[in-house]
Structures are given as structure tokens and as C-alpha cells.
Write a structure and sequence with these properties.
Layout: H1 3-25, H2 30-52, H3 58-61, H4 64-79, H5 86-111, H6 116-137, H7 152-167, H8 172-193
Helix pairs in contact: 1-2, 1-4, 1-5, 1-6, 2-4, 2-6, 5-6, 5-7, 5-8, 6-7, 7-8
């Protein structure tokens, strides 16, 4: 099993757990749990593969990804009531998923020889779109769009780190590890210490 495949599996598992936890907040049935978990788990990677014209899409080629996500949903369905502050768990698990999915998307684009801008965009898409779909479907405020919070910027910084490391002739594996470390470090700092970007504030019109 390749390093990129391992990243995809890890991303699917952790994003599926976040999807199932959000489904528990919405009080869905077991099928709803599985649907939201699978949507979250493979949403970003699906968009990545379609945009990169990778055939077949990763989870169509290997249905074990869907089985893993559905299994994670089943486990959360019977254990979610034991978890206090589920939203806190969602936020932290999502940060780990982001730090795995961004290197997975970045690595997939690098393996296809795409230019740096596309590599960065694919890392960002893989890391953020599944969680965005999850929150929209479950009527939650999307983490990716919370006011001033570091999220997309973490994905971008991580992917740029990988591209820069490759340009500096670092091997792909260490470059992707650096990508994940930067991504998670920034996201964790945003959660734990309130790091944020400046937010636009409209000014009243002059009289």
C-alpha cells in the first residue's frame, strides 16, 4: 500500500468520525449517520479526483473506503451518547482530518506532475470540501467559513509548504509530512489560542 493510499484511508476514517458526530447532533437515524459520514469522508477526495481527471475516483476503485466510513458511522451511532461536548470532539477531530487530507490531495496532484498552483488548490479542496458538505447538509455553521477562524488558510499554508519543500529538492514523503504538520499546527493554534485572520467590517456610509 502506497503512502498516498494510507493518507486517503486515514483521511476517510477521521472525516467519517466527524460526519457521524455531526449526524448525532442532528439526531439522524443510522442510515443518515452512514450517509453523512460517507459524504464527509469522500467528498473532498471525489472533487479532487474529478478535477484532476483521475479515473476511476478513488473510492469507486476501492470500495473499502466506503465500508470504512460506514463502519465508523456505525460505531459512533452506538457510542455518541457517551461523548460529552460532541462539538468540541468534532472540531479537534476535524483538525486532524484536515492535516491528513491536505497532504493526500497535495500528493495526488504532485504525483500527476501538476503545476504548483493546481497542487495547492487540490490540497485545499481535498481538505475542506468534505467538511463543508457535512456542515451544510446538517444545517451547521460550516467550520470552513467561521468568522476569521483559520481553516482554508491552514490548508493553503500546508500545501504551499509541500510545494516549497519539493522545490528545495526534499523527497515527497518528508514534504507531505511537513505539509500536515504546518496545517495542523496552524489549525490547532486557531482552536486553542484563538489565532485568526483580520475580518472585514463594513463602515457606515458618510453623510
Amino acid at each position: 500500500m502506497s503512502f498516498l493510499t494510507l493518507l486517503d484511508y486515514a483521511s476517510v476514517l477521521v472525516f467519517a468520525l466527524t460526519g457521524a458526530l455531526v449526524a448525532s447532533r442532528a439526531q439522524l437515524d443510522v442510515v443518515g449517520f452512514a450517509f453523512v459520514a460517507c459524504l464527509t469522508a469522500v467528498g473532498g477526495g471525489t472533487v479532487r479526483d474529478l478535477l484532476l481527471d483521475r479515473h476511476p475516483v478513488f473510492w469507486v476503485d476501492d470500495p473499502n473506503f466506503i465500508l470504512l466510513a460506514a463502519g465508523a458511522a456505525g460505531i459512533v451511532f452506538v457510542t455518541a451518547h457517551l461523548v460529552e461536548s460532541r462539538m468540541k470532539w468534532v472540531i479537534w477531530l476535524d483538525s486532524f482530518a484536515l492535516a491528513v487530507a491536505v497532504p493526500a490531495g497535495t500528493g495526488a496532484a504532485l504525483a500527476m506532475g501538476k503545476p504548483p498552483v493546481i497542487v495547492v488548490l487540490m490540497g485545499m479542496a481535498t481538505g475542506s470540501l468534505g467538511g463543508l458538505m457535512r456542515d451544510v447538509v446538517c444545517n451547521e455553521v460550516p467550520l470552513v467559513l467561521k468568522q476569521g477562524e483559520l481553516y482554508i488558510s491552514c490548508a493553503m499554508a500546508g500545501a504551499i509548504t509541500a510545494v516549497t519543500a519539493i522545490w528545495a529538492r526534499l523527497d515527497t514523503g518528508p514534504a507531505l509530512l511537513a505539509c500536515g504538520a504546518v496545517c495542523w499546527g496552524l489549525r490547532a493554534g486557531s482552536i486553542a489560542f484563538g489565532w485568526h485572520l483580520p475580518v472585514y467590517k463594513s463602515r457606515p456610509p458618510r453623510s
